[in-house]
Amino acid sequence: MKHKVIAASVVLLAPLTACGGTAAAGGDGSTVTVTVGYQSRTINTVTAGTLLRSLGAFERQLNALHDGHTYKVDWQDYATGAPITAQMTAGKIDIGSMGDFPLLINAARGRQLGRPTHLVSVTGYNLRGGLNTVVVPPGSDLRTLRDLKGKKVSTSVGSAADGTLVRALQRAGLDPQEDIEKLNQQPAVGASALTAGSADALSQFVAWPGLLAFQGKAKALYDGARLDLPTFHGVTAREDFAEKRPAVLEAFLKAQAQATDYLNEHPVAAAEKVAAATGLPAEVVYLYNGAHGIATFDPAVKPGLVAALKQDVAVLKTAKLTGDIDVDAFVDDRYVRKALGAEYDRRIAAGPPAPASEAWPKGADRTVAFKTPAELLTYVAAHRGALRAAYVPDTTTGTLWFADKAVWVADGTRLLPFVAPATAQDYATAHPGARVVSYAEALERAA
């Protein structure tokens, strides 16, 4: 965990102990520390964390308040949402970002402990659920979810990835409690377990599935988008902090919108910034956060995401992680509405970009987009060794994946990519004459 303060002059401060920010003696008698909990490697939160921090947008917004206070920002980096919730309910974090299932636990714990919190904005989302993926070792012979019966599956209980695993297993006719041995592990621990062979599969959120696939340490077994249920990450704030310092929260949300615009307007540069700050490969960051990435970034709290949050409550209740949760009381978009003004309604109405194939040439500060995966393959075949990465959207779900890690199907003259083998086989079975082909054969056909 990192504890740093970012300001015009960098000062290390003590942890927050009082609600609404720490006030300490300063030149004018009022220095306020705002403590932000974020997850640097959970890259769907970058517009409220890693990228926002690197751009300095929040600090600039605070400096523009001119309200007699001097502001310092204490950025605290965590691996998951659970410790952020623990610190928020202890009054030690003012603003935090996390995934949808952890957000619900955040809501429940806040109410239970008398420190209510509220969902105030969204970071990254995928309307079909593609942010979560189940992966297996590269040499695994497991090809469908039903093959997981009796196997050890690593996930982080209470996370969005756990929710995906539970729902996916149920749809496959398996009992998530009885038919698998679930290993409750932090993402990094689960990734190591998969590599070491002590876990047969791993269900995780961004950026772990893409990272492991990129490194050649895993392959996809199940694309979370097959659930066709929205999943997202968002920003939560303590109620007492928001009420005491609404201008500070609005400044944060204005800065988040600026970081969102930067990411959408400069996706390659944003990926490079996040990669530099996290140690993740930029190619993996771009898979999720790129121009046609798995995640769409927008701070607006869309009704469809709130509806999905209500459906998530049942999963957490069944797992005995929470009781009933009043989602409507938890959601509070007043501050982001005020921060964005008339722009908010436009953002509410905006949807994700259309899926597209992309190639990232070495040394380039932008990618090349293609209308079809076959066109991308033709380009790749002509530029072997000259590309950092190539990406294609799953034919049925739209989930972006690395072209060389995708499962390819030849259907007549068409070359169609899929994230997972079961999805590809389902397509081939439904289309007489279609067959699964290797990536090498797909390249040959395209060339």
Automatic annotation (TrEMBL):
Q: Which UniProt keywords apply?
A: Signal
Q: Where is the signal peptide?
A: 1-20
Which SUPFAM superfamilies does the record match to this protein? Answer: NosL/MerB-like, Periplasmic binding protein-like II
What the entry lists under Gene3D superfamilies is as follows: Periplasmic binding protein-like II
| Pfam families referenced in this protein's UniProt entry, alphabetically | NMT1
The record, for InterPro entries, names: SsuA/THI5 (IPR015168)
In this chain the SsuA/THI5-like domain maps to: 85-270
Q: What is this protein called?
A: ABC transporter substrate-binding protein
